[in-house]
Amino acid sequence: MKTPESPPAEAARLQTLRALNILDTPQEERFDRLTRMAKRLFNVPIALVSLVDENRQWFKSCIGLPVSETPRDISFCGHAILGEGIFIIPDAAADERFHDNPLVVNDPNIRFYAGCPLRALDGAQMGTLCIIDNKPRDFGVHDLGALKDLAAMAEQELAALQLALLDELTKISNRRGFMTLVGHAIRMSTRQKMSASLIFFDLDKFKLINDSYGHVEGDRALVAFASILQKTLRESDLVARIGGDEFAALLIDTPKALANDVITRLQVSLADYNEKSSHDYTIDFSFGVVDFDADVHPNVEALLADGDALMYECKHEKYDFTSISA
Q: Among positive and negative, which fits the CA dihedral 7, 11, 16, 22?
């Protein structure tokens, strides 16, 4: 048996999956409708909408199986998300990668498998819409087209979930998405006894940019800052636009002392951007850095509130609010 490898940028893929806040949720008609259609259209006993998590494949919709998940290391879908097209196994018993797989030699006695990867808006492959039979079979050109069409419908449903969690302007997480992701991250940090720190950002004199150059230019400044922030941080860190000109980042396995190094790198990157920019304004920020402490921060809101308070202390040290709009 061959265990599926991890796709490139696996940390970012898993982050996108968790941001959907779909894992371990109840069945929904919009996904069940698609698996019913697949079962009927292809005359197979099993049809699934499968999402590949770190250690398992979990079924958002499942027709024909009595379980809601199976280990990732024996999953067919774990292999399917490694490629771009539909992953087809005409006869698993005759395939050296799967002939001794527990899902082949035992129930559900998989012989035929066809899985079409389901992509998120960023292109990351979350899982598959797949069909399974307990006897070998061929899969023709028309079958390929039909499965792609059903998978596209499933992708649209995932996109609707993702759009509710993304900031439309900067394409990073919005406040709702950030709260969801950070909730998962700090629970993981607590279990694994890892450090985590939050940085709360507020752009300096952003109102002056809007007032002097217009809101279109203000939007460009927000997009530029979000892009530089993403490039400065690691792909495993969580970045969001909380609202207006406020941003936040959660740094996993990083204490406050090391988070300050991130601030320094960000300031250097912004200085380089400002120097090369043709704009008459500069982008700068105030910030607050706080260590996550489960005893002090019972929820994400408490962590954000501490970061916000420290950010305002930083801003007050930089500016006289009686004379300058920051």
A: positive
Q: In this structure, are residues 63 and 47 in contact, taking their beta carbons and an 8 Å threshold?
A: yes
| Whether CATH 3.30.70.270 fits 175-318 | yes
Contacts with 143 (C-beta within 8 Å, 6 or more apart), sequence order: 42, 114
Q: How much is the pLDDT for 320?
A: 63
Domain covering 10-163 assigned CATH 3.40.50.720 in the classification: no
Q: Which of 141, 134, 138 is nearest to 90 (CA)?
A: 138
List the chain domain ranges. Answer: 10-163, 175-318
Alpha-carbon span 57 to 101, nearest angstrom: 15
| Per-residue pLDDT tens digits for 99-116 | 999 999 999 999 999 999
Give the integer Cα–Cα distance in Å for 67 and 55. Answer: 16
Contact indicator for 68, 58 with CB cutoff of 8 Å: yes
pLDDT tens, residue by residue, 289-313? 999 998 899 889 999 999 999 999 9
Q: What is the pLDDT of residues 19-33, one digit of tens each?
A: 888 999 999 988 999
Fold match, 10-163 / 175-318: no
Q: Distance between CA atoms of 227 and 288, rounded to whole angstroms?
A: 20
Quote the pTM value.
Answer: 0.66
